[in-house]
Amino acid sequence: MRDAAPQTIHLTDYSPFGYRIDKVALTFRLAPHATRVISHIEFRPNPDTADRRFFLHGEGLRLISAMIDGQPVTPEITPEGLTCTVPDAPFVWQAEVEIDPAANTALEGLYMSSGMYCTQCEAEGFRKITYYPDRPDVMAPFDVRIEGDAKVLLSNGNPGATGPGFAEWHDPWPKPAYLFALVAGDLVAHPGEFTTRSGRKVALNIWVRPGDEGKCAFALESLKKAMAWDEQVYGREYDLDIFNIVAVDDFNMGAMENKGLNIFNSAAVLASPETATDANFERIESIIAHEYFHNWTGNRITCRDWFQLCLKEGLTVFRDAQFTADMRSAAVKRIADVITLRARQFREDAGPLAHPVRPASFVEINNFYTATVYEKGAELIGMLKTLVGDEDYYRALDLYFTRHDGDAATVEDWLKVFEDTTGRDLSQFKRWYTDAGTPRLTVTEDWKDGRYTLHFEQKTPPTPGQDEKPPRVIPIAVGLLGPNGDEVVETTVLEMTEARQSFTFDGLGARPVPSILRGFSAPVIVERETDDAERAFLLAHDTDPFNRWEAGRALARSGLLATLRKGAAPDQRYLDAITRLTGDETLDPAFRALALGLPGEDELAHALHEAGETPDPQAIWEALEGLRDARAEAMKTLAPTLFARHQVTASYSPDAEQSGSRALANAALAILTRLDGGAAAADQFASADNMTLQLSALSCLLRAGTGDEAAQAFYDQWRGDRLVLDKWFTLQIVNARPDEAAALTEALTVHPDFTMKNPNRFRAALGALAANPAGFHHASGKGYALLADWLIRLDPLNPQTAARMCTTFETWRRYDKGRQNLIAAQLDRILATPGLSRDMTEIAGRIRAV
Ligand code: B3K
Ligand code: ZN
């Protein structure tokens, strides 16, 4: 149990630790319920501070013995750690503790998953392994000896001596404790090799449970591509003799970048055509790259404190997005990223959990691995790159790597390398890091005597604890199109720094149509009076693929809002435009598949709320269904043609080209299912030889209400495969009708294959309910009560995953009084739970407080 009134940590309270560490040596004697950890740590006073308090973090440890310079000591122990009197000179701390990995259900620290030992130390898990200054600014080289009877014993760095029942590892690169890792189990390797550009041969291994060896090839290839890409684009080479990746079934997130020993959720590594979809393959490629890229942006240069988390996460997300853009289609990647940013980060920024990219305080740092820190953090890097230009961006990065290699750095250090490289003053840009909230960019225009002027006004609404928002620097990429669709002004970046600012374009023959915020050059909301004719024009002619997609999305959204507000029939202009665009065989199929996506239920609810209206989740669901039906009617000739034309006949590859074709064919199948009652989907389900086809067919059938038999067949076929079974749970729930979703979820949570101990399975059921907004927000309140029940049950076992899932409630203030009361009652019930974790107390409390 955590303490009753959790403490708030403030950025302004930072002070360096009083000691530095020259060396750490750890011995692990593994036993499921009684693992012994013996530490030998060489401390010396830190010359940068006079503070000589000696506090070591430690939680849930049984201290067996402690010595300083070989003499037994009796430290003072609290639930958070220990203090001890120490010499005012270099000294050696030695301790032995006992821990219980088999009882560790929080999946933080050393725990067991399917019989193997593994660790997760970021952010503050190392303190559950041994007493240590568990803070990222304390860096040290680690030697590790593992004693245990598992076949494979792994830790960070390069391998040392091994023998029966033991293995030693040496990591020469000083690292903070959060990058420590240990794995022990009867694993098998899918091996490979990479030679760096300076000729270092690196052994690569993907370690999995026996039986999964056949699902590693793609991850290994992705790793090699990432290693080569980081050399080519950022000049960064790998720095150890070995790089190990381990797949673990029970894991709280996607993966973890421990030095030389990445640990992955098995869902983010294992893939075969039969068991993984194209989207899974793409996600694996990008997560493998993300964790690998952390070797430089995160590990070699780490964070001074957890407030600087965006320094490694924002930058690494930006780098992995660049990688995916290079490996696949840049336009498709950008559109997909903006869809996610708006769905997750804009939502967060508009609600009670809004916080700056660099938060100023936190209670539980695990609650700050958010869309704001990650995705908006990445947008800030993209804006900097746009503002300084590519050449200066890479020069600044070179300086960052040389100046800060081996450092625990800050956002100030990061901005300073850009200032020193370019001579720019970035103090105004820094507001993006310190101020929460999504700026609204209002655009008006003038046209007079061949002179076209764009007037911009920026305003950021208040967020919790931040009422005033001074103007920010906003890079606005703009292009202008002539009346017949030609581009008359190519993409130009306007740099807005004031609250109000105008930009003029001269010498135009006719009033242009503006294409504003091309490539989504800043994470803002553009507000501009426009009409559907102009949107349809941009959808047909814009040369910027992002804005072309955006025009289609806006057209769909405005029609849907008209249906919701006035009961208007589905918008014919949208139907015509989307049919034309989707049938245009000169366009990339992946782009067309994305263009066929409709604004989500949550996006529409958000739009109504922003406009001061109260969204009705059921009405939103019906409006979308109505539009889908109308679109099927409008595409009744095109859909079967598209479906047939984009079938892939070559043998399966998850590459961009084949994935794009399958995405379009599957989007056509969803349309077709509304016309043929599911005949084509049933055929595809029966004949599919890969998961992308099988799953999309099942999804169509479930959505049509004719999927029960297929769902049973799918279960019978895949009941032995944990990852595929997760899909089975999710698909049924996300496709359930609003009035059935909560009951179905409840039924599935008592299915013998459901377990809350596995975060993937928990998310597959309860996360899927959250992803079905009309079901979750059903007026009965059943969805709210079910989620709250499960969060209360999960919290004592795994507070991190429980708290993350609790954010589903963050939009509660959007809805009508009835729903608000129902949700408030559930939040109160959660908050009144005795022994509620620090994680949940913070999240549920912040949500309830608004
Ligand atoms: N750095 C880890 C996330 C750790 C989350 C701790 N709650 C994975 C990543 O972003 O690469
Ligand atoms: Zn990361």
Account of the protein in words:
This protein has 850 residues and is an alpha+beta fold. Among the domains are: 1-186, Sandwich (Immunoglobulin-like), CATH 2.60.40.1730; 719-850, Peptidase M1, alanyl aminopeptidase, C-terminal domain (Zincin-like fold), CATH 1.25.50. The chain contains 27 helices and 31 strands. The strands form 9 sheets. It has an 8-stranded mixed sheet, with no helix packed on it. Strands 17-18-19-21-20 form a 5-stranded mixed sheet, covered by helices on one side. Strands 29-26-25-31 form a 4-stranded mixed sheet, with no helix packed on it. The radius of gyration is 27 Å and the shape is globular. It starts with 8 loop residues before the first strand and ends with a helix. The model has no long low-confidence stretch (mean pLDDT 98). (3S)-3,7-diaminoheptanoic acid binds next to β20 and α2.
